[in-house]
Write a structure and sequence with these properties.
By secondary structure, the protein is of the alpha/beta class. The chain is built from 23 helices and 18 strands. The protein is elongated and about 145 Å long.
């Protein structure tokens, strides 16, 4: 414990605060120590010519030099000496200050007795008053120490003027030094109270802030733990669900009667609804906790949005709704934004409108606009609903993720909340509108247009000059497809099916594009008329039936050749269908998927997913082997040669990422490279970067789709 300083406040007991004070005050004392000796030289240089310098003066000078050097050493060795004992260092610092003040005041008193009339000594007296004021601040922070310091510094001068003074001025000087002492002591007390109260408050705030930070960290850890737990549970649900959907998808391709096909489609759609809800929950957690942020890249905007629309078609058709879109030609082919965020938000908002629509057609308009000087992608969703008002829609769009709905359909509102949060995270503004029962939701999303507008879409080479007849399309679909076909330099005509039935002459168009209603009863009536018309088409005329995938089984009685196009169809898919019909390339496409004797390793711990992939691979002629964890995959690859590995990311014992790292390290010595494709239901940028960093080459989303699997195999084994 320090001899001169006894802590009273919490702040005075804080070692970090005391260390900063000790170091600061010790540094402030060094200039004063040097000035003591400097002023001593000036005074003695002046007096040596007048009265000479007694030997005692040299003793004072030597003592002042030693004290200045000592102060310098204490500062230079502060860290090492202070670490050995703060209290001991503080006592040494205060004692040296007392000793220094005593030497100076004794020297000045001695010189006043020897040469009392010398004016140069007034300079010493003024300097003494100055260092008394400066020392008041330095030593006031050490409690009552300042009283002793000021007494040591001022008492010798006051005594001299009281007992050796001969005039009234000397007496006044003595009283002045006493008054200075009392004033500086009281000032020191106020300074100490002010500084220590501030430091005490600051110390208290820091303690509270530290407690709050610890509580926040604890809440964050708990939140992360809860979030991780929920995500793991959702992932556990998604894996078997993906396998089940894969099986249902595989079964719907086979030969089934009408009733079984319908039941399988219902089961498959129900499974996808569950998967959508799980994905919404995952996205809700990510958006609420701001785990991810959008990352901009250049991508094909039209393809992204059209494929998202096509994927949502089945759900619209199940509810008896038509789904159409209008894509403005001014929309650039490629933009810079986050394609995954845009696709997910677009699908969710479209999903919400499908659930909210009471009747009629759901329409999406895709265009460009300018807002606040920025190019914006304008997405407008139209649907009919006679219950929800414009204000209700506006409130739903403005709802924050931490405010969950109480009196509304949680699933629908969750989808909308996540979609809204994702759009707003990309910088979009959203608003609702209504005109009677027709409701709309508008999204203005800033995008960066790019000079990379070269498109691989080349319809003119194949379709220029050909003719197409559009039959029974809805006004919006008719408008959209007419504009599209005309942009391909095709000749377009618009008829109704009843007009075709009444037509006696042969129909000579290259294509007849007939819309089939999504309602099964209406579709059956339509198909009977189409069947009766087949004989009226000339041999080169290709009949295209534009229908829902869910209605394929209704076409079994049509014996004549036709082309099935699932609606809503993307532009590149429509062109492919027409090209295949014209050039008869379907057989070539099927042949391209054959990969006889190609050895493929499937590393998947879910047996249902294993069987789905094996069944799909049977048609390709590939030789497939399976294992259930990463360790087995490594061992099998060391013992056998494979042309492709399908690797699940999450497996017991050794996961797919770690197994890939081990395989890539072993390939460094052999110089070989086996393509490894990740199979995962969690398709996120973070996981994609992890997979690429581990050495994987491609990604395959679950549930496994036949066309995606075939494309991957063709890409890496061709």
């Amino acid at each position: 414990m320090s001899l001169f300083f006894r802590p009273l406040h919490k702040a005075q007991k804080d070692r970090a605060i005391l260390k900063r004070i000790d170091q600061t005050l010790s540094r402030q004392g060094l200039p004063s120590a040097l000035l003591h000796f400097g002023l001593f030289i000036i005074i003695e240089w002046y007096l040596v010519d007048k009265v000479g310098s007694p030997k005692l003066v040299y003793v004072f000078g030597l003592a002042l030099v030693v004290m200045a050097a000592w102060r310098f050493i204490m500062i230079a060795q502060f860290e090492s000496w202070y670490a050995k004992g703060p209290a001991a260092w503080r006592d040494l610092f205060i004692l040296s200050g007392f000793f220094h003040a005593a030497i100076w005041s004794s020297y000045l008193s001695y010189r006043l007795t020897t040469v009392p009339e010398s004016p140069i000594l007034l300079l010493g007296i003024l300097y003494t008053a100055a260092i008394a004021a400066g020392g008041t601040f330095v030593y006031s922070l050490y409690g009552k120490t300042v009283r002793v310091y000021l007494l040591v510094l001022l008492a010798p001068l006051s005594i001299y003027y009281f007992f050796w003074g001969q005039t009234i001025v000397d007496t006044i000087m003595a009283v002045g030094f006493i008054a200075m002492y009392l004033y500086l002591v009281s000032t020191a007390h106020r300074v100490a109270d002010l500084v220590w109260s501030f430091l005490a408050s600051n110390h208290e705030y820091k303690l509270r802030l530290s407690a709050l930070e610890q509580a926040r960290e604890a809440n964050t850890v708990e939140s992360k733990s809860n979030r991780r737990f929920i995500q793991q549970i959702l992932q556990r649900v998604k894996n078997p669900l993906s396998g089940l959907l894969g099986v249902l998808g595989m079964l719907t391709v086979g030969e089934q009667d009408s009733e079984n096909q319908g039941m399988l489609n219902i089961a498959r759609r129900s499974g996808y609804s569950m998967l959508d809800l799980i994905n919404d929950l995952e996205a809700f957690i990510e958006q609420r906790d701001q785990i991810r942020v959008p990352q901009s890249i250049v991508f094909n905007l039209r393809k992204t949005l059209e494929h998202a629309l096509a994927d949502m078609g089945a759900k619209a058709h199940e509810n008896g709704r038509e789904l159409s879109y209008l894509y403005h030609p001014d929309v650039p082919e490629r933009v810079e934004a986050d394609p995954q965020w845009l696709s997910n938000a677009f699908r969710r908002l479209l999903d919400f409108t499908l659930d909210m629509a009471d009747s009629g057609e759901i329409t999406v308009r895709v265009g460009m606009a300018t807002e606040r000087g920025k190019d914006c992608l304008q997405l407008t969703f139209y649907f009919v609903n006679n219950e929800i008002s414009e204000s209700d829609l506006t409130s739903a769009l403005e709802r924050q993720l931490d405010i969950l709905p109480e009196d509304e359909d949680v699933a629908d509102q969750l989808t909308l909340m996540v979609a809204t949060a994702q759009f707003k995270a990309m910088g979009a503004t959203m608003k609702a509108g209504a005109k009677g029962d027709l409701k709309k939701i508008s999204v203005m999303l800033p995008v960066i247009t790019t000079s990379q507008q070269a498109s691989s879409f080349r319809p003119t080479k194949y379709m220029a000059g050909r003719s197409i007849l559009l039959v029974d399309l809805s006004p919006l679909n008719e408008r959209s497809l007419t504009a599209e076909f005309m942009s391909w330099n095709m000749n377009v005509a618009v008829w109704t099916l009843d007009r075709l039935v009444e037509q006696d002459d042969l129909i000579e168009n290259d294509f007849v594009f007939i819309n089939v209603p999504v309602d099964d009863q209406k579709a059956l009536v339509q198909l009977q008329k189409i069947q009766s018309l087949m004989g009226q088409f000339k041999g080169q005329t290709k009949v295209i039936l534009y229908s829902s995938e869910l209605q394929r089984n209704l076409f079994k009685n049509i014996e004549d050749k036709y082309i099935f196009v699932e609606k809503p169809v993307a532009r590149d898919q429509l062109l492919t269908a027409l090209r295949d019909a014209t050039e008869h390339t379907s057989a070539e496409v099927e042949e391209a998927f054959q990969c006889n004797n190609t050895r493929i390793l499937i590393a998947e711990d879910n047996l249902l997913n294993q069987k789905v992939v094996l069944r799909l691979l049977e048609e390709t002629g590939a030789v497939a082997e399976t294992c259930v964890n990463g360790r087995e995959a490594i061992e099998m690859m060391q013992a056998n040669e494979y042309q492709l590995v399908l690797m699940d990311c999450y497996m017991p014992r050794v996961d797919g990422l770690e197994a890939t790292r081990v395989i890539r390290n072993s390939e460094i010595e052999t110089g070989s490279h086996i393509p490894i494709v990740a199979m995962t239901s969690e398709q996120t940028p973070e996981l994609e970067r992890e997979c690429l960093a581990a050495g994987m080459d491609d990604f395959l989303g679950k549930p496994i789709q036949k066309d995606q699997l075939m494309a991957v195999i063709q890409r890496w084994t061709a």
